[in-house]
Amino acid sequence: MKSKSLLIMILLAAVLVRLPVAVYLSDQVTVLPGIHDQLSYDALARNLLAGRGYSFTAKWYPFTPADTPTAHWSFIYPLYLVGMDLLTGYHPLAARLFQGIVAGLLICLLIYLIGRRVAGEAAGLVGAALAAVYGYFIYYSVALMTETFFIVFVLFSLYLSLELKEKPTLARWVWLGLALGMASLLRQTILLFVPFLMLWLFWELKKEGIRWWYFTVPLVVIILLIAPWTLRNYLVYHQFLLLNSNAGYAIFASNNPNLGTDWRNDEVVAPVPDELAEQNEAELDQALTQRGIEYILKDPQRYLWLTLDKTLEYFKFWPSSESSRISNLNRVFSFVLYLPFMFLGLCLSLTRWRSFVPLYLFIVVHTGIHLISWPAPRYRLSVDAVLIVFAGLALIELAKQLKTWRRGLSPI
Fold it and tell me: How far apart are CA 393 and CA 350, in angstroms?
């Protein structure tokens, strides 16, 4: 079977397995394991439609008073829900179905393109097939949260970076800026990865005589995408806040001394200190960041042990009585099965490491960010998407070895 036909079959299968899950999650937005944030995005979209802006009608996690402008959540994801509501009326199922189709097609397609670039056609196809049936991707692809679109833009950014290394055109520089900028509007943590990616591109392309200003093009595009929201924040809070106000709380709460060295402590959702309660979100973001850093510096030994426990949570691959049935099933039928092949693929890739550098960088930087702050497994999903490229490589190499072994057993 030709690669193109096989890829089409994989993409169709990816869509088909997601649609029933979307229907199962229903036309309502309710509390479900691991996707509690969809209530927040749904509420924000309803308030936007009602003309109340980015706010909630009741006091909201973690520190937003009722009827008060917030910058804690992604600005553009509620706009997606608003757009779907304007097209279909209030039907969360429509948003789930559309998102599932996008996820099934684009995530698998981009993993195929990346895999083909760094490891060959066969590895790309296997990676796409693995992504199509990855339990976590299926579940989160139809949850009304930022994960799906964030993964798409992360993979698109990595693919464009690999293409730029081979043929650095102005259009690709612009597209890279758009991809990274959109990813940052979904999850601002990607901004910490941008300098590492740009340094890698500079290192690879400096011998090609690329003019220096080409490297500024993605940065300018990112700034142009972020600037309207920074201006919005300044008009609301009369203080600089680049994007979202969630980084400070994540660092503060996830390193709270009340946790001790146990991430699964009930104190993980820490209240804002009383003396900071009257500050606006921009002020809170700065104050809580400072408070979180002070916690780390005050007891670095406790912080190191806590980070080790966070690491176990972030890479947790075993079922747990603390997790829901859905979470355990997702874990077993995705990360548990794939992890050995992801690890083997990483090892195999070291013999041609230069081709994989941007993938390594994203895995390390993104993981580091969440071990310092909030190590929820769902924040690992974009890393899983990249690791699936390595799993595809591992399975192809294993198939080659098995074929060689079988030939050795054949009678002469």
Answer: 12
What three-state secondary structure class fits 60?
A: strand
Element (H, E) at 188: none
Q: Tell me which residue has tokens 């949570």.
A: 313
For residue 6, CA distances in Å to 105, 112, 393, 398 come to: 13, 11, 17, 20
Domain residues of the chain, as ranges? 148-239
Helix (H) and strand (E) counts for the chain? 18, 0
Q: What is the pTM of this model?
A: 0.95
- Contact in structure between 129 and 99 (CB atoms under 8 Å): no
Burial class (CB in 10 A: 0-12, 13-18, 19+), 328: middle
**Residue 237, both tokens:** 């809070």
Q: Which residues are registered as beta bridge partners of 212? A: none
pLDDT band at residue 267 using 50, 70 and 90 as cut-offs: low
Closest CA to 388 of 5, 3, 119, 97: 119
**Which has the closest alpha carbon to 282: 241, 315, 242?**
241
- 251 φ, ψ (degrees, to nearest 5): -70, -40
Query: Tell me, what's the pLDDT at 388?
Result: 98
Distance CA 213, CA 159 (A): 21
